[in-house]
UniProtKB/TrEMBL annotation, chain A:
This is PadR family transcriptional regulator. The lineage of its organism: Bacteria, Bacillati, Actinomycetota, Actinomycetes, Propionibacteriales. Residues 176-200 are annotated as: Disordered. InterPro entries: Tscrpt_reg_PadR_C (IPR018309), Tscrpt_reg_PadR_N (IPR005149), WH-like_DNA-bd_sf (IPR036388), WH_DNA-bd_sf (IPR036390). It holds the Pfam family Vir_act_alpha_C.
UniProtKB/TrEMBL annotation, chain B:
This is ABC transporter ATP-binding protein. Residues 5-237 form the ABC transporter domain. It comes from Nocardioides vastitatis. Coiled coil: none annotated. It comes from the Bacteria. Pfam families: ABC_tran. GO terms for molecular function: ATP binding. Keywords: ATP-binding, Nucleotide-binding, Transport.
Length: 200, 239
């Protein structure tokens, strides 16, 4: 995550000091991606070094207030208008774990899938519970609710993928058991489908 | 907590001989007052079968279905139909509204059939329509409403008369994400107010509104996710 850009975007609203920036960040994203104050100050120092922000003044309590520069504004605008790169998918521990579970002998993949699905469902229930309460239309609350939506969609996708893995594994097991009756070129016609005639 | 719905070792076989399909195999399942339970599973896993049995729309091949302490199998057809009008609310995926009746009339119908005076039933219907957020559409016909509005009418119809068991089969199926979410909010509110709810869905995002999620595969319960919170996140602090 680009802490640098997130902080710059907040500074574009108004000059702020470190703690304030962290609070404003969390107001919008919950504690989904916690920022520690040390991280905030390191980033501010770097922003200043790169000419994107200026340590301006101290308020009555001695907080150092940072202000965005013109170069900083350009940087924020570029950030907002450039899509997040998807060229390098983040390393997905779950996908890697399943890939290994399928190939390493003695691992019960079915159990791995089921346990993960329960855990992800739990998380999804938690997000949904939080979402139920986040109904306001104020910008900050809306921001938080959209972050929750993002987590909800990601968890949902993971559960769908786990379901998909489970049925593919079952089909593969049936094909291995009866290789002649299920030509590998048409996996969708495997016998597993026989008891799953759609009936809605 | 008392179980409003209790299925014990319920099996349902469709057809006979080699063509027989075991839609449910010895499934035990409960829904308590104040609880929303989601039933998930791929298509063909027996979700609708479970719901129609719970709603008294079908009879099990084996096992017991008990609603509010009454075993549905022990009832005659008339008594069962009465139970369906008074204790059990059913929400179908396709809304199933009667096109020739207005929203209020659709909602009032089962109450009127049950002997409630027409005036009282209509007044009740308007109140519930208000509750689900479409009080102003009470005199509209289904064809003049959006899918989401029709589904709200269907929910109003399912909950009118303080029914204690609400059964919903893919109630969000044809709706967009946001409208679907509003429907879940309504179901959830009804359960928070004391009803027991069973929500059949194949979408995890919707199942997550439930307190408990039961996974069906080939007519069997294979997994169950409880309600304890993991507290992964906390809300943003108030300003
Ligand atoms: N009336 C019926 N006659 C024959 N088979 C049926 C009937 N109803 C359901 N089935 C079969 O029972 C199984 C479970 O169906 P259903 O409960 O509708 O599943 P789901 O709702 O999970 O998609 C499926 O294999 C389906 O084809
Ligand atoms: Mg179904």
């Amino acid at each position: 995550m680009s802490v640098k850009h997130a902080l710059l975007a907040l500074l574009e609203q108004e000059p702020m000091y470190g703690y304030q920036l962290r609070a404003e960040f969390e107001q919008r994203t919950g504690t989904t991606w916690p920022l520690n104050v040390g991280q905030v100050y390191t980033t501010l120092t770097r922003l200043e070094r790169d000419g994107l922000a200026l340590a301006e003044s101290e308020d009555a309590e001695g907080h150092v207030i940072y202000r965005i520069t013109d170069a900083g504004r350009v940087e924020v605008a570029t950030w907002f208008t450039t899509p997040v790169a998807r060229t390098q998918p983040p390393r997905d521990e779950l996908a890697i774990k399943l890939a290994l579970a399928v190939t390493v002998p003695g691992v019960d993949v079915g159990t791995v899938i089921q346990q993960q699905r329960s855990a992800t469902m739990h998380a999804l229930q938690d997000y949904t519970r939080l979402k139920r309460r986040a109904t306001g239309s104020e910008p900050a609350e809306l921001a938080w609710s959209l972050v929750l939506d993002s987590l909800v969609f990601a968890a949902e996708a993971e559960i769908r993928w786990l379901d998909h893995c489970e049925s593919r594994l079952r089909r593969a097991a049936i094909e291995r058991a009866a290789p002649t009756s299920a030509p590998t070129s048409t996996p969708t016609s495997a016998p597993a489908a026989a008891n799953e005639r759609s009936h809605r | 907590m008392s179980a409003v719905l209790e299925l014990t070792d319920v099996t349902r076989v469709h057809g006979e001989g080699p063509a027989a399909v075991q839609a449910l195999r010895a499934v035990s399942f409960r829904a308590h007052a104040g609880e929303l339970v989601a039933v998930m599973g791929p298509s063909g896993s027996g979700k609708s079968t479970l719901l129609t049995l719970a709603g008294g729309l079908d009879r099990p091949t084996d096992g017991r279905v008990v609603v509010e302490g009454v075993e549905l199998g022990a009832l005659g057809n008339d008594e069962r139909a009465r139970m369906r009008r008074t204790s059990i609310g059913y929400v179908f995926q396709g809304f199933n509204l009667i096109p020739a009746l207005t929203a209020a009339e659709n909602v009032a119908l089962s109450r009127e059939l049950d002997g409630v005076a027409a005036r009282t039933a209509r007044a009740e219907a308007r109140r519930v329509l208000e509750e689900v957020g479409i009080g102003d559409l009470a005199d509209r016909f289904p064809d003049d409403m959006s899918g989401g509005q029709q589904q709200r009418v269907a929910i109003a119809r399912a909950v009118v008369g303080e029914r204690r068991l609400i059964l919903a089969d893919e109630p969000t199926g044809a709706l967009d994400t946001e409208t679907g979410e509003e429907i879940l909010r309504l179901l959830r509110a009804r359960c928070d107010a004391g009803a027991a709810g069973v929500l059949v869905t194949h979408e995890a995002r919707h199942a997550a509104w439930a307190d408990r999620v039961v996974f069906l595969r080939d007519g069997r319960v294979v997994d169950e996710t409880g309600a304890e919170s993991v507290d992964l996140l906390t809300e943003p602090a108030a300003r």
